[in-house]
Amino acid sequence: MQDTTRNKLKLAFLLFIAFVPITLATITYRNAVESGGFGSTVNKGILILPPADITDLAMTDAIGIPLFKSFEELIAQIENDDDYAPQPWLMVFVTANTCDTVCRERIHLLRQMHITLNEDMPRVRRYYLNATGASLPKETADFFRDEFPSMGIAQGDKSKILENLAKSNVILDLENNNYVFFVDPVGNVMMYYEPHHPIQDIKADLEKLLGLSSLG
């Protein structure tokens, strides 16, 4: 067997092992929610079943280059299992409106919540997804750079995002609301939050998922 083929088979096996905890975490979380296992308030995050894919969020950089590939595309490009680096969980704030005072406060609270994860903080990365279809205003871009330097900035098109997520039975109102999405380390967009969800609920769910998953 050629070395390349052997490496790809080994990589596929290792990634399968890594993927299992993520899948079990999602299933365990769903069952815990349905059974009331997370306490009296079971309606926290909104599960996406089946999960969408990270590419469904259509996140690009400032010049339109996609920021993420599907898990299958990543596997296809890796020749050696030593080249695979586990990805972090993503917390993606999505809006199709100008980031006003309320928006900025929400992003601030998400940042503060991220910090309180302590040793788990490196396992999560935050993104702001501007789904207006236009570039961020300079004032907003400058504000984010100064106040939230560790937050990734992505561009997106509202229509494409809505169309893609509708295939996973996710219906959003990006004209009037913003949302926070959880994406697991293999690119599953598996849960989201609406503006009425308090930061405490988002943190509680995230800590449960990090505790259930050994990856990322």
Which class of secondary structure composition applies to the elements? alpha/beta
Helicity, as a percent range? 40-55%
The profile of the biggest β sheet is: 6 strands, mixed
Task: Name the shape in a single word.
Answer: globular
Number-wise, the strands total 6
In percent, how much strand structure appears in the residues?
A: 15-25%
Question: Could you name the ranges where pLDDT drops below 50 across 5 or more consecutive residues?
Answer: 4-10, 36-41
> How many helical elements?
6
Briefly note the CATH topology name: Glutaredoxin
Mean pLDDT: 83
Strand arrangement in the largest pleated sheet:
1-6-5-2-3-4
CATH superfamily: Glutaredoxin
Q: What is the succession of H and E elements?
A: HEHEHEHEHEEH
Into how many domains do the coordinates divide?
A: 1
CATH level 1 class label: Alpha Beta
Report how far the terminal alpha carbons are from each other: 31 Å
Describe this structure in words.
The protein has 216 residues and is of the alpha/beta class. It has one domain: Glutaredoxin (3-Layer(aba) Sandwich), CATH 3.40.30.10. It is 41% helix and 17% strand. It contains 6 helices and 6 strands, in the order αβαβαβαβαββα. The chain has a 6-stranded mixed sheet with strand order 1-6-5-2-3-4, covered by helices on one side. The protein starts with a helix and ends with a helix. About 6% of the residues have low confidence.
